[in-house]
Design goal:
It is a single chain. This protein has 229 residues and is an alpha/beta fold. It has a single domain (3-228), classed as Aldolase class I (TIM Barrel). 30% of the residues lie in helices and 21% in strands. The protein contains seven helices and eight strands. The protein has helices at residues 51-60, 81-90, 104-112, 130-134, 140-152, 170-179, 209-219, and strands at 3-10, 19-24, 67-71, 94-99, 118-122, 157-163, 185-190, 225-228. An eight-stranded mixed sheet has the order 1-2-3-4-5-6-7-8, covered by helices on one side. The radius of gyration is 17 Å and the shape is globular. It binds iron/sulfur cluster. Iron/sulfur cluster binds at residues 27, 29-31, 34, 36, 40, 72-74, 100, 134.
């Protein structure tokens, strides 16, 4: 496992639970506004953390932490992901997976084995604009497949979009709502231009609060729970 980082505690990442976050190295997308360049750009990779240390930490925190979030990078690219999560589940922790949705077969396998308790899938753009949004060649069918797997799953989930103004218009965001038709929960994440894969995005203008409120109201006509954070 290529473990690039560990956040020992988060009160906000896993809705309703106290979690640790394990960050895995490597991603097949190159979203220019990505705020974890050190997990995406190989030349920025730091030394990997030892898996044994992660389990030692989790053993020590039993009773204080409820859950572990597996994030990245893109976790589903790692061959040992399933066995890694099995071990965490065996310890009694709830597991949340963050994914870009490019490996639906991995998500399906994890769900079939009941290894996930929450899943968060990033929706980068309307399906027909994906390649441009993530600066990589994306199989849109796989993204669609992953959306459907999550919609049909029995576990809590969220779809979420980081709303980068120069890349996503209001119309695009409403189009995404069509791509995730039937979703119970959709999160609009404010873009914070602090650390990005491409430096130009540090100068990005963000959506105003009143614009976000208007978009939220329009989305609520189609999705029961729309959250801006
Ligand atoms: S935002 Fe997520 S999917 Fe995009 S490059 Fe960064 S880690 Fe990969």
């Amino acid at each position: 496992m290529k473990i690039g980082g560990l956040q020992k505690i988060s009160l906000i990442d896993y809705p309703g639970l106290i979690s640790a976050i394990v960050f895995l190295q490597g991603c097949n997308f190159k979203c220019p506004y990505c705020h974890n360049p050190e997990l995406v750009e190989p030349k920025l990779f730091g030394p990997c953390l030892d898996e044994k240390e992660i389990f030692k930490f989790l053993k020590m925190r039993k009773g204080k932490l409820d859950a572990v979030t597996i994030s990245g990078g893109e976790p589903t690219l790692q061959k040992e992901l399933i066995s890694f999560i099995r071990k965490i589940k065996k310890m009694g922790y709830a597991v949340k997976l963050d994914t870009n949705g490019s490996q639906p077969q991995v998500v399906a396998k994890l769900l079939a084995e009941k290894l996930l308790d929450f899943i968060a899938m990033d929706i980068k753009a309307p399906l027909d604009k994906y390649n441009n949004a993530v600066k990589s060649s994306v199989d849109q069918e796989k993204i669609k497949e992953c959306i459907n797997i999550i919609l049909q799953s029995k576990i809590p989930y969220e779809f979420r979009t980081t709303i980068v103004k120069s890349m996503l218009t209001e119309k695009d965001i409403l189009k995404i709502a069509g791509d995730i038709k039937g979703a119970r929960r959709y999160v609009l994440q404010r873009f914070v231009p602090e650390k990005t894969l491409e430096k130009i995005f540090l100068q990005e203008k963000t959506y105003l609060e009143e614009e976000l409120e208007r978009i939220k109201k329009r989305l609520e006509k189609e999705i029961p729970s729309v959250i801006v954070r």
